[in-house]
Amino acid sequence: MNWPHRQYSRFIQVGDQKWHLQTMGQGPPILLLHGTGSSCHTWAGIAPLLAEQFTLVMPDLPGHGFTQTPPESGQSLAGMARLIRDLLTALDIEPTALIGHSAGAAIAAELTLAGYVRPQVIIAINGAFQPFKGLAALLFPVAAHVLALNPLTIYAVASGAKDSRRIEKLMRSTGSEIPADMVARYRDLFTAPGHVAGMLGMMANWNLAPLVRKMAGLQVPIYLVSGAKDAAVTPASAQTLCQTVPQARFIPLPQLGHLAHEEDPNAVAAVVFSVLGPSAT
User: Fold this and answer.
1) I want to staple 145 with a disulfide (CB 3.0 to 4.6 A). Which of 40, 98, 204, 213 is the partner?
2) Are 163 and 183 in contact (CB under 8 A)?
């Protein structure tokens, strides 16, 4: 498989958890966390740009990509944060900054609020901090849990993903137009039953409400980088968070969608450098 930057890949066993991650670059260490259903491949375009000034640590989240799926206790927000803490301890890395995309931004905030890391700054790219409301809040986790427990459903999802048109439609539904090779990598992921099971397990165990209640107490700056065309996490949700989180700052990205860093790596890298340049040196 032609996986992006595979020469930087490594596997590491930490306790009962086997991880896949990529590390590249030199300079102050930065932890990059992808979102639900993705993998470290999402950073393929922006990583070489950031690696000119920083050491990048880019794991596949538990159950995603090539990282082992943990027990159910490790698939929640708090559980994933604990596993990532253990990974960083094993690597002997204390990141100076965290960059999270979508659900990865929520994990970055949880890591910080739990005291597992002490970053100087968090950058949330289209960060998914808002829980579902109303009936969806009750039905969505239940549905995901049922699907995750049914191997036939998992294989059906993986089989259906072999239709490239479905994957292309799914990617466009985020409000982003990403390169064909990145679409192909998502097809690789969604046709892998293990990845699908890990993704559904994460969705079934996700609960953002406790995190949202704690966000006002965040002691480090968090920059909410928001794509104007994001159809998954609207800019309005980021602006609302700014009203309740004193350390939050809103940075708009015109013309970009949910996968902004895949659409235009240069534009997002410029934002990252503008934020990290003085604080990470």
Assistant:
1) 204
2) no
Render 177-219 in DSSP notation, one character per residue: ---HHHHHHHHHHHT-HHHHHHHHHHHHT---HHHHHHGGG--
Query: Which secondary-structure segment (H or E) carries 59?
Result: strand 55-59
- pLDDT score of 137: 47
Q: Give pLDDT tens digits for 42-101.
A: 999 999 999 999 999 999 999 999 999 999 889 999 999 999 999 999 999 999 999 999
Question: Given pLDDT bands bounded at 50, 70 and 90, which one contains residue 242?
Answer: very high
DSSP states along 263-275: H-HHHHHHHHHHH
Structure tokens at 182: 């990145």
Phi and psi for 18 in degrees, rounded to 5?
A: -100, 125
